[in-house]
Design a protein that fits this description.
Structural class: alpha+beta
Order of helices and strands: EHEEEHHHHHEEHHEHEEHEEEEEEH
Strand content: 15-25%
Helix content: 25-40%
Mean pLDDT: 95
Strand order of the largest sheet: 1-3-2-15-14-13-12
Number of helices: 11
């Protein structure tokens, strides 16, 4: 079996065993962390940081987790809501007046967080994603594709700019700066929205699915293939670029490891306090779980339940990222689990994250017995 590094409670041995099996099956590298009551019961990693299998995955290796970043951006907004500085039922234009253009005067903050704002597609050049002012100005001038609040369509790249600009207007800081100062910093979490050059040596570049190359694109398999879309295709080579790394693309360019993702999102599992550090109130944590939309997502083409910035799955909440990353939070069990990897698989054939969740839940049964 593939060698696994790190530590784990024996009750959760199925988790590192499963990670080892994924590496044996051909994955380049990855890491898993399981936190219960704000403490790590699993913190393991293995494999390699490159497709050529030359550099081992280390304890401090970080990787682009793509849309798992959305949960970090959402958490930043939830902090402001908790502090009374942001009202989820207020018009976005209250904080961002230019946003009222093109029929968006009635778009509410909660619409941004729940993928119901009607702005799901990034329609500009990829290079414009790297310039905050240009990206947000483009979205401010864009007309919604449906009446905001009446339907949901996954805002894969746009959500981070929309929520992030509201954060910036309120605080005077970028969402990456706010998250670092108010969330990651106090918790000691190694997660970054906008990655400095000093961290480049630690980055595991994403490896395309077998048989694919760096022109592999992100797509929404549920979207009707006969319906034209103006959305710009994002290629893997874009996600692996230095420009992507340096930019703040708060829906998709977060870098971290499983430990940091599970640590941060343990806030929602533990009533807003982890390691003696309070970031949210218990009420603020519950707010994230209030259903904003339930039905078929018109972009993903599948049933979805959205809270404020998170997908809702029964009593749990969380989200996944392009390529396989996943964060899963179960407040009832005070559990947070994160899986990160540099190995992409075709989405329709990728069950790695949910299999690891099931393994963690099995360990939890023994712990609670």
């Amino acid at each position: 079996m593939a060698d696994i590094q790190g530590s784990y409670d024996e009750l959760f041995a199925a988790v590192p065993d499963l990670l080892s099996g994924l590496l044996d099956a051909g994955d380049a590298g990855g890491a898993v962390a399981v936190f219960v009551d704000g403490q790590a019961v699993v913190d393991v990693w293995g494999g390699f940081t490159d497709g050529g299998r030359a550099r081992p995955w280390e304890r401090d290796t970080i990787v682009n987790v793509y849309s798992v970043t959305k949960t970090m951006t959402a958490l930043s907004a939830l902090v402001l809501i908790d502090r009374g500085e942001l009202d989820p039922d207020a018009p976005v234009a209250r904080h961002w007046p230019e946003f009222a253009a093109a029929g968006k005067e009635n778009v509410l903050v909660r619409h941004l967080l729940s993928h119901t704002a009607g702005l799901p597609d990034w329609e500009g050049p990829v290079e414009e994603l790297y310039d905050w002012a240009s990206a947000t100005a483009r979205l401010a001038g864009q007309a919604p594709q449906w009446e905001p609040g009446t339907a949901a369509g996954y805002h894969s790249l746009t959500q981070g700019f929309l929520v992030g600009e509201v954060v910036r207007r309120i605080t005077g800081r970028s969402v990456g700066e706010f998250f670092a100062a108010e969330v990651a910093g106090p918790l000691g979490a190694d997660f970054h929205i906008g990655l400095g050059a000093e961290h480049d040596r630690r980055v595991a570049l994403t490896v395309p699915p077998p048989g694919r190359d760096e022109d592999y694109t992100a797509g929404s398999p549920g979207r009707d293939a006969t319906a034209p879309s103006a959305a710009t295709a994002l290629r893997l080579r874009d996600g692996n670029s230095i420009a992507w790394r340096r930019a703040q693309i708060p829906a998709a360019s977060g870098f971290g490891n499983a430990r940091s993702v599970a640590l941060v999102q343990s806030l929602l599992a533990c009533g807003g306090t982890v390691g003696g550090v309070r970031v949210l109130s218990p009420e603020g944590c519950e707010r994230a779980r209030r259903v904003q939309f339930e039905g078929t997502d018109r972009v993903l083409g599948m049933p979805c339940r959205y809270g404020l910035g998170y997908g809702l799955f029964g009593d749990a909440l969380g989200w996944g990222g392009w390529g396989g990353a996943l964060v899963w939070v179960d407040p009832g069990e005070r559990l947070a689990m994160a899986y990160v990897t540099n190995q992409m698989r075709e989405p329709a054939a990728d069950n790695r994250g949910i299999e690891l969740v099931m393994a963690a839940q099995d360990g939890l049964k023994g712990l609670r017995a």
